[in-house]
Amino acid sequence: MTGHGVGRRIGALSAVVALGIGGTVTVAGTAAAAPARTAVAATRVADVDYATWQQDVRAVLDQAVPYVQQRTANASGQKLALVLDIDNTALETDFHPWYQLPTPAVAPSLDLARYARSRGVDVFFISARPGIIAAETKWNLTSVGYPVSGLYTRDLPDLFDEVSAYKTGKRAQIESLGYTIIANVGNNDSDLVGGHAERTFKLPDYDGQLS
């Protein structure tokens, strides 16, 4: 990547090292049901700059807004939730050095979160970041304008779980609070697999080049 790309791979994990850390009602009523999925075609990261990444993210989330509008119509009295990953989904982690805070919001994701909240949808964030930086993470999210109904980060014993299993478990936990997760947004498959969401929206990670 060019320009902003110099910050790639110095996201949450680098912040952890720097800090010296040692440390839904589902479709058809089954957590294993495969949700509808929207994705953008994969592109080699070497060919993608910051502006192209933003364009690719927008291409996916432009489909999410009308979906949320349709899904929330006549949904009075229902507890609905939107779930977002954080790094390179909600925040531009790999495009900005970790020490330059707050990390800016991914604009299309912020637009979606605010729109969903305006439609009565609670907005939750599930991140593989360790719990020791949960307060800083919540501050970053709120300071750039996100509504935060809940934030899940990894503490023991979750710290050593597979990311996909950990995130699936947290979505199930949100469901246990009486919510239906209408959409789950992330840029890695581990953010999205495992069910417990009516629909998933896959943002680009360019074959794993983005965290």
From TrEMBL:
<dbReference type="Pfam" id="PF03767">
    <property type="entry name" value="Acid_phosphat_B"/>
</dbReference>
<dbReference type="InterPro" id="IPR036412">
    <property type="entry name" value="HAD-like_sf"/>
</dbReference>
<protein>
    <submittedName>
        <fullName>Hydrolase</fullName>
    </submittedName>
</protein>
<dbReference type="InterPro" id="IPR005519">
    <property type="entry name" value="Acid_phosphat_B-like"/>
</dbReference>
<dbReference type="InterPro" id="IPR023214">
    <property type="entry name" value="HAD_sf"/>
</dbReference>
<keyword id="KW-0732">Signal</keyword>
<keyword id="KW-0378">Hydrolase</keyword>
<dbReference type="GO" id="GO:0016787">
    <property type="term" value="F:hydrolase activity"/>
</dbReference>
